[in-house]
Amino acid sequence: DDTKFLEAIQTLLTWIERGEVNRRTANNFYSMIQSANSHIRRLLNEKAAHEKEMEEAKEKFKLALSGILVQFEQIVAVYHSASKQKAWDHFTKAQRKNISVWCKQAEEIRNIHNDELMGIRREEEMEMSDEEIEDPPEMKETEESALVSQVEALKEENDSLRWQLDAYRNEVELLKQEQGKASRDEDTSKEQRMKLLQQALQGMQKHLLKVQEEYKKREAELEKVKEDKLKMESLLENLKEQESSTSRVCACSQEKEFPAEKTLSNGLVKSEREVLLVGIISTFLHVHPFGASIEYICSYLQRLDSKICTAEVEVLMTRLQNTFRQELSGVGASLEKRWKFCGFDGLKMT
């Protein structure tokens, strides 16, 4: 039980250190130790869930920060518009001072938030570049979510630039309308201002085009990631189908060469489950030519099926003397029982 695990594991530790393990209780203690080992998987799953929550919180914070930054941009644009001569001349000296102070404060706060958002994006880009070495499906999902967030940020920046561009266009139109009514001196001054505004307008248009190109590029990358993800899923399905068909072919060929009636009629293997266990154990011991202990074998089998018990496996291997052989290795306190696969020799004897 997760809620009582810490208390239970401390009790188990106390019992073992106190010397409660003996021949009579060894199996019970082994089962409890095995349960403690199974708890590791739960802890890893819990850690993965917390990591996912953390990533979602980061994305939520980044989107909120982007929205705040857009609003700061609009506030700063209001201060800049108020600081232009046609509006500035109508404010009192105290009002102008306050507007200047507010504008400076807003720009500083905006720059701090912008630096923070850019820092988050740089960290994400560095993490993505570090993770490009690996290609698991989880990596594809992380890359896809990062691209989605970048696309959203580019959309917001695009909207902000369009608003500023509209403001510049409106101001240029107003200057054009006022140009015919002003004197020559005012015309010269306004013409200079209009040139400056037109230059700023051209700069904004170029920047807008650059942002739009970046936006299209990110959208294309996002589509590519989605396609790669679909290809990966399709490849996994094909591999599963191939593995399934291969298993069926092997099963059919084994049935033709070694009929089940003959294998089961001799009384050594009593069920299809035992046949599967014999095959898995033989494969495991084949890559362990120096043998393995029954505990090592069972720990491998329990990764495939947690219901498998040591006694069941040991009885099965003892029954099949032409397939498995138990040997003693070591001397004195290091004496150890090891099981080896002897099926090749047993085939000649049978």
TrEMBL record:
It holds the Pfam family ENOX1. GO terms for cellular component: external side of plasma membrane. One of its GO terms (biological process) is ultradian rhythm. Keywords: Coiled coil. Residues 33-60, 151-245 form a coiled coil. GO terms for molecular function: oxidoreductase activity. InterPro entries: ENOX, ENOX1/2_dom. Residues 150-245 form the Ecto-NOX disulfide-thiol exchanger 1/2 domain. The keyword NAD does not apply. This is ENOX2 protein. It comes from Indicator maculatus.
